[in-house]
Amino acid sequence: MDLKKAIRSNKFIVTSEVGPPKGTDITKMLDTAKPLIGKVDAINVTDLQSAVMRLGSLAGSYLLKQMGIDPIFQITCRDRNRLALQSDILSAACLGIENILALTGDHPLKGDHPQAKPVFDLDSIQLLEIIKTLQQGKDSSGNKLKGKPEFCVGAVVNPCADPLEPELIKMEKKIACGVQFFQTQGVFDIIRFKEFITKVTQYNIPIIAGIILLKSGKMARYMNENVAGIYVPAKLIKEVESASDKQKKSIEIAVRMINELKGLCRGVHIMPIGWERLVPEIIDSSGI
Amino acid sequence: MIITEKRSRKQIFNSLKGNKTVFLIGCAQCATVCKTGGEDQVDEMESDLRKEGLKITGKAILDPACHLVKVKQLFHKNKETFKQTDAVLVLACGDGAQVIKDGTKAERVLPALETLFLGEVERAGHFTQKCILCGDCIIDRTGTICSLTVCSKGLLNGPCGGSKNEKCEVDKEKDCGWILIYKSLKESGDLDNMRKIYKPLDYSKQLKPQKIIL
């Protein structure tokens, strides 16, 4: 099922993601995506994730589309001004891409070209508003378009943002800009996630919760220290550390999280971070 | 206040290569406060250049260096000296250096400082950037804190997803600008300002070079 249909159908939505390569060898990216055909509703293609220069998300999305996968084209404000962003959005529509996910983007200082000029001509809210305007047949200057794009528009939200209130205010603005679904940062703390869900149920919008595969205690601690909005409870860290077979444990935790999330939100977004080959088993074992 | 810092001596000596005589100009305003272009720094530069074998034809501290009339007055008083000068080395901001070029018509006017930002003086030697001179002030709606300056991405509609422990994603030592704004708005009961959607900035207002005639 594609994403649009999955959202409409009320089924439990499953998405995953792939990162385009640094270079032109796309074999690994396509090999990673292939086993997911028929198992996920859509696959996100990240846009220069971590501000590292790579193959673009537009080309990546198109390549997945050619394989029969419904791609979610991620687009960030980091390195394109409003002209380039609008142009890429029109390009995506012409290449048959039906889902778009608008993000602010990591700062270039976080990536491998820290000397690059940060653009941020728009922020994610303004980008979403421009996507809305384009879909109404006009560009951001009010000029009429010849043919208009049509997308299922998504955005991201961080359920464990602290403080949460500014994040919720921004979420409301995203909804006002026409967002049709949210994908979240990786969830490890179900209690906090439940609190978040209680606050956002009123918006009546599909929330697709992020699942990050835990590879080790070291990774969990690193994320707790450095990654915004990620809190891996100490109990979970211990559980990973004491496991002899880390991959088996990672699958077990992911499946458990998915099962707990089933009644709470509309779906899950599995971020395998290198362990892509485990995703099919996770999906099968959790019965989604 | 225009905040400056000293260029490395190596860079300055390199830029002076091929010149034998130098006139030094500092600034009694911003560069004096920044301890980059006051009397002490001009004297220090004089001594360092002498050690490099350069001859100092004269020195002056303008008040301020960015004022064309003051520069012209200095030039008229020192016409003969300027004739014997290969290069003027300016211990003031980049604007000051260019005004000195305009006012003295000296062949070579070179900067001795890096010009960093418009900043506030928190206390002696502590300078902070608060305003990026955008020409379209937003602080009436952001709790008198400029998000274009305090947010590393210059966002207008709230924090990005990169804030951790209320710090910025690019520097754990820096506060997340939008959390500062959120707290300020909450405290004054103006949180509704954050709920509004703000349009992208109009960069045509920042078309360079700008000029105003009163």
> Major sheet of chain B, described briefly?
4 strands, parallel
Radius of gyration of chain A: 18 Å
Mean pLDDT of chain A: 96
Helical residue percent band of chain A = 25-40%
Question: Would you kindly provide a brief summary of this structure?
Answer:
The complex is a heterodimer of chains A (288) and B (214). With 288 residues, chain A is of the alpha/beta class. Chain A is built from eleven helices and eight strands.
List the helices and strands and how they pair.
The complex is a heterodimer of chains A (288) and B (214).
Chain A: H1 3-9, E1 13-18, H2 27-33, E2 42-45, H3 57-66, E3 71-76, H4 82-94, E4 99-103, H5 124-135, E5 152-157, H6 165-176, E6 181-186, H7 190-200, E7 207-212, H8 217-226, H9 234-242, H10 246-261, E8 267-271, H11 279-286
Parallel strand pairs in A: 1-2, 1-8, 2-3, 3-4, 4-5, 5-6, 6-7, 7-8
Helix pairs in contact in A: 4-5, 8-9, 10-11
Chain B: E1 2-6, H1 9-15, E2 21-27, H2 30-33, H3 39-51, E3 55-62, H4 68-77, H5 79-83, E4 87-91, H6 94-104, E5 109-111, E6 113-123, E7 126-129, H7 147-150, E8 167-168, E9 171-175, H8 177-188, H9 192-195
Parallel strand pairs in B: 2-3, 2-4, 4-5
Antiparallel strand pairs in B: 1-6, 6-7, 8-9
Helix pairs in contact in B: 4-6
Describe the structure.
- The complex is a heterodimer of chains A (288) and B (214).
- In chain A, helix 4 links the parallel strand 3 (71-76) and strand 4 (99-103).
- Chain A has 288 residues and is α/β, with parallel strands linked by helices.
- Chain A has helices at residues 3-9, 27-33, 57-66, 82-94, 124-135, 165-176, 190-200, 217-226, 234-242, 246-261, 279-286; strands at 13-18, 42-45, 71-76, 99-103, 152-157, 181-186, 207-212, 267-271.
- Chain A has one domain: TIM Barrel (Alpha-Beta Barrel), CATH 3.20.20.220.
- By secondary structure, chain B is α/β, with parallel strands linked by helices.
- Helices cover 33% and strands 23% of the residues of chain B.
- Chain B has helices at 9-15, 30-33, 39-51, 68-77, 79-83, 94-104, 147-150, 177-188, 192-195, and strands at residues 2-6, 21-27, 55-62, 87-91, 109-111, 113-123, 126-129, 167-168, 171-175.
- In chain B, 37% of the residues are buried.
- Classes of the chains: A alpha/beta (288), B alpha/beta (214).
- Chains A and B meet through helix 5 and helix 6 of A and helix 8 of B.
